[in-house]
Amino acid sequence: MKTLNQLFQTYKQASWRTQLQWIGLFLIGLASFGIVSAFYVNVTAQTALAGREIAASKENILTMQHNISEMESKLATEASTQIMQERAKALGFIPANPEEFLFIFVPGYTPKPAFNLAPKAVPNPAPIILPEYTESLFDWFTSRGQP
Amino acid sequence: MIDPKRWRYQFIQFILGIIGVLIIVRIYSYQTSEILPQSWGDEGEYSYVTLSPARGDIYDRNGNLLAGNKTVYEVVVDLDTVRKYENAEAISLALSVNAGLNYRDLLNKFSNALTDQKYLFLADNISTDAFKKIDAYIVELADKPGTPRVNTLAGIHFKPHYQRFYPENSLASNILGFVPLNNIGYFGVEQKFNNLLFGIPISEWVPIDPNRAEEIPQVEPGASLILTIDREIQSSIETILDNTLAESGSESGTIIVMDPRNGEILAMTSTPHLDLNDYENYEINFQNGTPFNRAISQAYEPGSVLKILTLAAALDTGAVTPETTFFDTGSIVVGGVALNNWDGGAWGSQDMLGCTQHSLNVCYAWIATQIGTENFYAYMKKFGLGHITGIDLAGEAEGRLKLPGDSDWYMVDLGTNAFGQGLSVTPIQMVMAASAIANNGKMVQPHILYAKVENGAQQNIHYDIVGNPISPETAQTMNEILAASLSSESYEAAVVDGYQLAGKTGTASIPVFGGYDPSFTNASFIGWGPVDDPRFMVYIWLEKPKSSTWSSEVASPVFKEVVEKLVVLMGIPPDQIRLQMAGQ
User: Fold this and answer.
1) Chain B residues with CB inside 8 Å of A2's CB?
2) What is the largest CA-CA distance in chain B?
3) B53-100+112-214 adopts what CATH topology?
């Protein structure tokens, strides 16, 4: 009770102290808010940028996939049996008959291997979004805890 | 003594403590909160979308594309923009000129749109070339700010999607089948492997807000398939078949080429064909229940080609030997019915080679009686008759093998079945059964799928032997008889110089209501080679040829033509050279 009385007494004697402290508190709050806002804006901007990049990448991937399939179709058409035969004919080639063949024994010759369509193994691409954007604090602790 | 300023520190501690607790509470809520997808949708922040994969490609055994995807565009217009710009005529004109669409139809679509309608679907399957032209026009207009509004293409939107595409058009159409706009395969490989080719669609909640950083799942395309088909052989036999039909006047035709060592179908065709890019013509090309692929879907009475199974069964059971002689009087009575030879003549004393060379029905009916009813049908079943082969194509028929005990089986059937009448088989059944003879007694599974490629890995498909209906010794004897038979005068049209081949013709009467058609026949031929190391088996069926009713005159030359192509395309040297090379 004595302390409380002393507090009131002190502030009554110098009211500017009260104003100064309020101003100080306000400035501290403002600065804190500014710092938090700056962090928030920074993180949000990075997130938005990443989102835009994802959207743009997705569009690019789709466009490229469509272009690839279109080009494959055109290539297959150009290399189709009918067109190849017409081209060969135009170049003066004629179909061979069995009696026109000459078979030669080639030591060490190995027939061509069976067709393999599978692409060569490549390492998995890095994820587009860094783990920092998606992992939880628990995930982070877990990943740090692993050797 | 109590510090009078202590309360200040306590106050700051209290505030910091509150802040600390709030931070911990917030961290905990971030880590443990679980937002349900439904609430995302309710809030309009996410939408539930299904991402469909691109359909897998189909290749021949050498990597030539037989079925792929091309990009086409769907055209939608934003009606609010079109109303504002009053450019419906400009859009219709652009689509009409560049994409070949009907100008009036397009304008009608605009005028029929409801007043509160936001979007209007105009067209689909617009080619990439047409899209590029229109897109270039839009870009060109954008560079000319003074263009009147009515002349712009504002409000038009193009959405790309895949459409099935067959670069070879009608080549191998009977094998491949087709895929209409609903992305479901019909017939052939497209139907049989629809689930594999279609892939696995992914349904996910994706953020509508592009500012949200979330990885959108990648949809893996459907599995690609590599077939056992060789495009060059396929093209050759289709040309041969089409020419043969034109020359012989046959109603339809079928040719199968299979590797008898492993059952790989190297080529298969039947008529009619279909340009798979114009699948809308299906109902025009295949009227009145015409099978899409006769090689697997149409059973018929094969006639004398089936004699090879009868003789194989007889030799395997020991009912006859190659030297067994039969005195042909031109007629035999089985089950109370007299059966005659194809020419009505009597051929006198004949051994098994003679019976086969001259394709004597009477002799073969007698052979069946020597085998016995039970054994004969047991062997026919072991050869796979009356059951589907299990070939990996949609729409296989099983044919009909009447068995003793069936209400419509009579004793005479034993005699007629022995020379391929009174039962029905599909061409692929005959090929599978004959593979046991060509392949040292081991019957192979006919198949069309060589490998599937999924998730970046290729899995080659291996098929087991499906049966051993006859012994290797019987198969060897059969090969000798059929090779000797083929090299005789009766088969002159089928002989290919330099190559020892085995084969048999079949001229079958066609059953009609109340008997057999007196005017037309089914002409068939089955053969393989080289006999000592068979690389190909060829089956030919010509339905109702008009130039001749005899298989030896219409089907044998086709066999020769096919084999002459095969030895070139497969690089098979003449026997003499091949054996010399093997010795080196």
Assistant:
1) none
2) 143
3) Penicillin-binding protein 2a (Domain 2) (3.90.1310)
DSSP 8-state symbol, B325: -
Of A61, A76, A138, the CB nearest to B31: A138
Q: Search chain B and give the residue with CA nearest A46.
A: B213
Specify the DSSP class assigned to residue B344: S
Strand partners, B459: B452
User: In a 3-state reduction of DSSP, which class is residue B134?
Assistant: helix
| Token pair for B57 | 């490609």
pLDDT confidence of residue A127: 65
Report chain A residues whose CB lies below 8 A from the CB of B3: none
Look up the CATH architecture of domain B231-274+292-583: 3-Layer(aba) Sandwich (3.40)
Do residues B154 and B89 touch, judged by C-beta distance below 8 A? no
Q: Locate tokens 């179709």: which residue?
A: A73
CA distance B168 to B71: 17
For residue range B94-114, list pLDDT tens digits in order.
999 998 899 999 999 999 988
For residue B214, pLDDT beyond 70: no
Contact B508, B521 (CB under 8 A): yes
pLDDT band at B213, cuts 50/70/90? low
HEC profile for B42-107? HHCCEEEEEECCCCCCEECCCCCEEEEEEEEEEEEEEHHHHHHHCCHHHHHHHHHHHHCCCHHHHH
Instruction: Give the residue from B2, B220, B243, B458 with the most A CB atoms within 10 Å of its CB, the best one to mutate.
Output: B458
pLDDT of residue B44: 60
Query: Quick one: CA dihedral B311, B317, B322, B323, positive or negative?
Result: negative
Phi, psi dihedrals of residue B74, rounded to the nearest 5°: -100, 135
Q: Does A99 touch chain B (CB under 8 A)?
A: yes
Position B444 scores a pLDDT of 97
Identical fold between B53-100+112-214 and B231-274+292-583: no
d(CA B131, CA B512) in angstroms, rounded, equals: 55
Q: Greater confidence, A134 or B330?
A: B330
Which residue in chain A has the smallest CA separation from B454?
A: A118
In chain B, domain spans: 53-100+112-214, 231-274+292-583
Contacts of B451 in chain A (CB under 8 A): 117
Beta strand B224-227 pairing with B58-59: parallel
Per residue in B259-283, pLDDT tens? 999 999 999 999 999 999 999 999 9
What is the pLDDT at residue A128?
63
Per-residue confidence band for B391, with pLDDT thresholds at 50, 70 and 90: very high
More confident site: B502 or A43: B502
Which whole-number Å values give the CA distances from B230 to B264, B395, B447, B566, in the listed order?
10, 22, 13, 11
Tell me, what's the ipTM? Answer: 0.78
Both tokens assigned to B342: 């194809």
Host H or E run for residue B474: helix B472-486
How many A×B Cβ pairs under 8 Å?
A: 127
User: Given this model, what pLDDT does residue B38 score?
Assistant: 45
SS (H, E, C) B485-539: HHCCHHHHHHCCCCCCCEEEEEEEEEEECCEEEEEEEEEEEEEEECCCCCCEEEE
List chain A residues with pLDDT less than 50: none
CA Rg value for chain A: 38
Report the alpha-carbon distance of residue B453 to residue B457 in Å, rounded. Answer: 5
- CB contact at 8 A, B357 and B485: yes
